[in-house]
Amino acid sequence: MVPVLSQLAWFDISDPESPELDELATRFGLHELQIEDCRHRPQRPKTEEHDHYIFTVLKHIHDDSELEFDDIDLFLGRDFLISVRSADAGVIETVRARAGEEDVDRLDRLFYMIVDQIVDGYEPVLDKLADEISEIEDVVLDRPDPETLARIFSLKRKLVEFRRIAGGMREVVNSLVRREKGLVGDDLDPYFRDIYDHIIRTVDLIETYRDLLSGALDIYLSAVANRTNEVMKVLTIWGTVALPLVIITGFFGMNLRLPWVNSPHGTDYAVALMAISTISVLVYFKMKRWF
Predict the structure, then answer these.
(1) Are 52 and 30 in contact (CB under 8 A)?
(2) What is the CATH number for 92?
(3) What is the pTM of this model?
(4) Rounded CA gap, 103 and 118, in Å?
């Protein structure tokens, strides 16, 4: 199999089911359980150290819009680097171009560049989530409709998954930082600490966004409750205003001898009485500041 870079033994497997992976496993003595992890996806982010190589499972964002993650598996030895991925080659292609420009001649630095590129891919997604949450906060008061509620719950589910992935990646990078005098050079420790800082920031932002969404959900429920209260208040006011009219019309509808029965202005008096009672109720409500 031909290496990705001519000067380094970096082998990239774009299909985990490929027999080339078995050939490399036999050639470099890779454990069969880790080959199985490469083929049975998804796996949790993790890193495992063996006598002559490090096995790491990383999570890169495969689909920004749906926040879907895919595995990139790395085997780092003293004289080889193997990356196992799906058909999505964006991360690998970017690292290969960057390594060619910087004339990288160390496998551990290539390993660092892949991890760094994956973690850097989280930031644009965080920016999109921030914009979407800001948009939800703008509309949740004005238009608290079911579509907004569905967006809130959808984003909360995405953030829960993102938080799980970012937490696992944090542990992976932390274990790489703590490793001493291994396959990763000590001179790369500051770079991995920088990646670790980015992961910590990612986790903090996810927690912040989850709190903002929870607040938006509370605002949504309050807005719906307030709107319901406003409707009920209006209905109550009109029902109360109509109550004297019902009483008066019911009173004059009785088959008894009533005032103004023989008066030519009886209808006018009844209408005036209903108008006065309605105005009196409205004035009372206004004095009580009920509307």
Answers:
(1) no
(2) 3.30.460.20
(3) 0.76
(4) 20
Domain membership of residue 101 as a residue range? 1-120
CA 127 to chain centre: 11
User: Chain-centre distance of CA 103, in angstroms?
Assistant: 38
Question: What are 55's strand-pairing partners?
Answer: 48, 75
Q: Are 55 and 33 in contact (CB under 8 A)?
A: no
Q: Edge-to-edge strand order for the sheet containing 53-63?
A: 10-13, 81-84, 68-77, 53-63, 46-49
Please report the pLDDT score of residue 166 as a whole number. 93
Helix (H, G, I), strand (E, B) or coil at 211: helix
Distance CA 232, CA 148 (A): 23
CA–CA gap between residue 244 and residue 239 (Å, rounded): 10
Give the whole-angstrom CA distance, residue 5 versus residue 205. 36
Q: Provide the domain count of the chain.
A: 2
Contacts of 138 (CB under 8 A, 6+ apart): none
Domain edge (last residue) among 120, 147, 182: 120
Tokens 């497997």 found at? 13
Do 137 and 216 meet the contact criterion of CB atoms below 8 Å apart? Answer: yes
Out of 97, 120, 143, pick the residue that ends a domain: 120
In the block, which residue shows the tokens 């420790």? 189
pLDDT of amino acid 118: 92
Cis before 259 (ω within 30): no
Give the residue ranges of the chain where pLDDT is below 50.
Answer: none
Rg of the chain taking only CA atoms, in angstroms = 35
* Cα–Cα distance, 73 to 53 (Å, whole number): 13
For residue 180, give the DSSP letter: -
- pLDDT of amino acid 291: 66
What would the two tokens of residue 181 be? 């005098």
pLDDT at 208: 92
Return the pLDDT at 90: 80
What is the secondary structure of 105-129 as a DSSP string?
--HHHHHHHHHHHHHHTHHHHHHHH
